[in-house]
Specification:
- The structure holds two protein chains of two kinds.
- Chain A is α/β, with parallel strands linked by helices.
- In chain A, about 40% of the residues lie in helices and about 10% in strands.
- Chain B contains 14 helices and 14 strands.
- By secondary structure, chain B is an alpha/beta fold.
- Chain B has two domains: about 160 residues, 3-Layer(aba) Sandwich (Rossmann fold); about 130 residues, Rossmann fold, CATH 3.40.50.920.
- The longest helix of chain B has 15 residues.
- The radius of gyration of chain B is 20 Å and the shape is globular.
- In chain B, the strands form three sheets. In chain B, strands 3-2-4-5-7-6-12 form a seven-stranded mixed β-sheet, sandwiched between helices.
- The chains are: A alpha/beta, B alpha/beta.
- Chains A and B meet through helix 4 and helix 5 of A and helix 4 and helix 6 of B.
- Chain B: InterPro entries: PDH/Transketolase, THDP-binding, Transketo_C/PFOR_II, Transketolase-like_Pyr-bd, Transketolase_C.
- Chain B: This is Transketolase family protein.
- Chain A: It comes from Paragemmobacter ruber.
Amino acid sequence: MTDHGRIAAASNVSLALRAWNIRRKSLLMGEVQGQGYIGQALGVADVLAASYFHALRYDPKDPEWEGRDRFLLSIGHYAIALYAVLMEAGILPEDELETYGMDDSRMPMSGMASYTPGMEITGGSLGQGLGIAVGMAMGLKRKGNPAFVYNLMSDGELGEGSTWEAVMSAVQHRLDNLICLVDFNDQQADGKTTAALATGDERAKWETFGWHAQRVDGNDLDAVVAAFDAARAVTEAKPRVIIFDTTMCKGVPFLETREITHFVRVEADEWSKALAVLEEGKPA
Amino acid sequence: MTLASMVRKYEPRRVPEVKVATTAMIASLAAEGYDTVTAPFGAALVDLAKQDDRIVGLSADLAKYTDLHIFAQAMPDRFYQMGMAEQVLMSAAAGLAREGFIPFATTYAVFASRRAYDFIAMAIAEENLPVKIVCALPGLTTGYGPSHQATEDLAIFRGLPNMTLIDPCDATDVAQMVPAMVAHPGPVYARLLRGKVPSVLNRYKPDYQFQLGRAQTIRAGRDVLVISTGIMTMRALDAAEVLAKDGVDVAVLHVPTIKPLDRETIMAEVARGGRLVVTAENHSVVGGLGEAVAGTLLQNRLAPRFGMIGLPDAFLEAGALPTLHEMYGLSVSKVAEKIKGWL
């Protein structure tokens, strides 16, 4: 296998700056359309920074490299955040940023595999990513390919029955090459996820099903990195999940304290304000 | 609901004159006078898989009832038991296809079309992945009632872009559709006949071979053109023999591929003119072969005398298959009767 290595190893850019860049690019895209799932993008930016600049193996010049770790975006509406990290990683050209959500753009509002390099699946019909990840993890094992499959899903998807079919299936087939990432921002379309179906001890649920499970602060980069390392280091033949507690709109305080909803409303003049606020918090 | 109405609901609906035991769900489709082949799907898949490493098999606790157990026994390391979980059956099949494999995913037609539809639509069809979905108990081939009778599966999948649909008639179709499905680059939904499957088509046309996307004339006839699919081609051929004794000459055009439909052959046969055109399918008259043919003909300014044989737009009763086929018009005698009535 070609040794492409992890690009993070060759970079001096800190993860904090990567996360900041992801937030900034997401805001710039949101400004283009005057809308977007910016609350989720700002919240998950640290997890994506650690994914693409610490955990994943990939080749920016060859997004379909057979040795790559697969990163599945089950939550199609988080596409704005994934485009930001794909640009940051050099998989998508930055000059396409301003086409976000436009006709003929390679970056539609909801992620689709056939549109975008680096977008492994078409998410958006929630509760499908983990099942596809199960099949890909089976396939990699059949091929003797040591790559990992990462599936990024939302806490809302914990309510989908298909998620739990996939959870059981991953254990049955001993998929130790599967790492599920759950963005737990406690917000779904109609209100709090914990007021809907995620009412229990989510980590314990996964553990009971037979997964190696962790739950960490998803906006604490050190904790996020340590969780990725721990997940990959598990020696038991079982799948792994990391539940990340994240804060919607993280990094832009005046949005963080706004009444948080699934679709955060940002007024036309607030995008530049948000960018200015973010600028103040730029890491060294 | 009042108690009285509930009591009425539970009264016997009818007392058959001749009691026929409810055929077991897994029973082979009885067909008088035809030789049978055992498990043609499983055997064909094993043969093909020996030459093609990409083929894997998955089932949601129905390998035994979809003849996939033959594959599982022959190639245990290439078979995935997915448990009673049709949603992950389909999404995992999509994942395997993404990694370069050609998964054959089996269950009952009701479960694939109803429960797993969104997963087939988004994870498989929208991505145009080579997942081959093979489903037993198509249409009215079980007496277990609506929970197991897939009377609308073709209507559901006809509306799905990228999907190819096969409704085989007999053991030849079932065996030969397998390599055709593998050769086809996209997703396929195939109805399955399992167990002891009758050999029908080669009796009437010794050189018949299944061809994906092609309709083929099995029997020529001057008075009536039956355009049929699945087991109704067998019924049409048998009805043609009955009608021949009455001097009615019936042609049978077999359409094992429902989508894409072989419009050219269908139009050419209809355009030969003068014949009563009858469609016959083991499926609801809503959204199946009949409406597909009717739409094709109208759009091409062909308006022959036209009739549709199929299942009614209703949840069907439970009972013995021969009784139900008689009741819902799929039996040989009912097909012959209907055609005569339209002449």
